[in-house]
């Protein structure tokens, strides 16, 4: 069986690079020869059992070891039911947990073509953050998609707007004509400032002005606020942002679930998008459809991944700023520690597989 190198992440965030079989596609899978892999906070959190348990309750083991969710590369093989991809295509894939390796598995509903004007690096910044932002706005808050832009003016507050999920929320909200956008960021606020449209009431606020001044500014711009997307999601943000929401018909999107959600007043609806849930069977009682079929989440991501190719090609959507760490797969441990310690401010960490010592000439 052909083999490849794959990174395993351990609870203390040290890594090993091990041999593993090159994955074989299921019917709906695309196997990708990875050129660039991208890191997300869940990669270190899932490797750290204590954090994983906090987020996921009674979990007894880490979620996974080869954590990488985002990668870009060339199609290597396709499953029997895959229609739109062929060997050699340039693609970006959000995947369940196979991205810190030479080859990964891109499910057809979360794989997209990369247009020629976009590099593998820019593409690798999109997957999980883009998808979570789309889920928050269009699945949980039920805004109309960017192909049917809203005609209703309703303020949207995005906290942590310079984070990857926050910035994609701002970008998608602007494309869907959701305004005014009240974007709250810190030193990386320039990531979203050019997207905001002051003529439509959008503003950028700096969270470092302090919570009282922030509340005052928000109330000025949005005296009646019904929608918050919180990319930071902790006790402080819930306590600061929930009093700004109207008592009727308000929703609060938590990008990160956890005990802080219990602080949300009962009159506000809590919404928690969870992109990795796209691969789990749906709750039969949910509006997403019967158990096992998982049709609605798949349809959702098919639509949004196809839209991503279009929007990147047309220059409507840009990736997130990034930093390429020097040694490919061998730098993943440093990337995890950097994310855990909040060193990545305003950047995605990326890893070029060919930069891995010993793999460059393959
Ligand atoms: N639900 C899901 O499926 C899902 C998917 C992806 C991510 N997440 C979660 O969502 C959260 C954000 O992930 P991400 O990838 O978007 O993060 P990220 O890009 O790593 O976020 C980094 C940014 O967060 C900002 N920040 C840090 N502390 C802040 C604070 N106290 N107030 C305001 N901004 C602060 C910083 O902004 P400045 O530099 O401007 O200060 C920094 O640039 C993480 O907890 C992650 O685990 C969940």
From TrEMBL:
Residues 12-260 form the Enoyl reductase (ER) domain. InterPro entries: ADH-like_N, ER, GroES-like_sf, NAD(P)-bd_dom_sf, Trans-enoyl_RdTase-like. It holds the Pfam family ADH_N. GO terms for molecular function: oxidoreductase activity, acting on NAD(P)H. The keyword Oxidoreductase applies. The keyword Ion transport does not apply. Keywords: Oxidoreductase. SUPFAM superfamilies: GroES-like, NAD(P)-binding Rossmann-fold domains. Gene3D superfamilies: Medium-chain alcohol dehydrogenases, catalytic domain, NAD(P)-binding Rossmann-like Domain. Belongs to the zinc-containing alcohol dehydrogenase family. PANTHER family: HYPOTHETICAL OXIDOREDUCTASE (EUROFUNG), OXIDOREDUCTASE, PUTATIVE (AFU_ORTHOLOGUE AFUA_8G01420)-RELATED. This is GroES-like protein.
């Amino acid at each position: 069986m052909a083999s490849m190198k794959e990174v395993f992440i351990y609870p203390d965030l040290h890594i090993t690079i091990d041999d593993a079989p090159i994955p074989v596609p299921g019917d709906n899978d695309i196997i990708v020869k990875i050129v660039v892999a991208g890191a997300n906070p869940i990669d270190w959190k899932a490797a750290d059992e204590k954090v994983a348990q906090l987020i996921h309750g009674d979990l007894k083991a880490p979620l996974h070891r080869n954590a990488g969710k985002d990668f870009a590369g060339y199609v290597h093989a396709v499953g029997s039911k895959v229609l739109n991809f062929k060997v050699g295509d340039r693609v970006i894939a959000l995947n369940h947990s196979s991205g810190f390796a030479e080859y990964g598995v891109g499910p057809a509903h979360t794989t997209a073509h990369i247009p020629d004007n976009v590099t593998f690096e820019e593409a690798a910044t999109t997957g999980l953050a883009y998808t979570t932002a789309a889920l928050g706005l269009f699945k949980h808050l039920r805004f109309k998609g960017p192909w049917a832009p809203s005609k209703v003016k309703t303020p949207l507050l995005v906290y942590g707007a310079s984070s990857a999920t926050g910035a994609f929320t701002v970008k998608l909200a602007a494309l869907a004509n959701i305004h005014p956008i009240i974007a709250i960021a810190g030193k990386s606020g320039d990531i979203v400032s050019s997207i905001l449209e002051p003529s439509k009431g959008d503003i950028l606020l700096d969270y470092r002005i302090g919570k009282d001044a922030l509340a005052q500014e928000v109330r000025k711009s949005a005296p009646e606020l019904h929608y918050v997307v919180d990319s930071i999601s902790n006790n402080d943000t819930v306590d600061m942002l929930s009093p700004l929401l109207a008592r009727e018909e308000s929703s609060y999107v938590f990008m990160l679930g956890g005990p802080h959600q219990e602080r949300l007043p009962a009159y506000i609806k809590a919404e928690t998008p969870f992109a990795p849930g796209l691969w789990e069977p749906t709750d039969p009682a949910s509006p997403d459809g019967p158990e096992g079929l998982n049709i609605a989440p798949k349809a959702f991501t098919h639509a949004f991944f196809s839209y991503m190719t279009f929007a990147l090609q047309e220059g409507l959507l840009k990736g997130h700023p990034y930093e390429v760490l020097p040694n490919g797969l061998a730098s993943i441990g440093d990337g995890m520690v950097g994310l855990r310690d909040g060193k990545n401010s305003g950047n995605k960490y990326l890893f070029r597989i060919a930069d891995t010592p010993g793999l460059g000439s393959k």
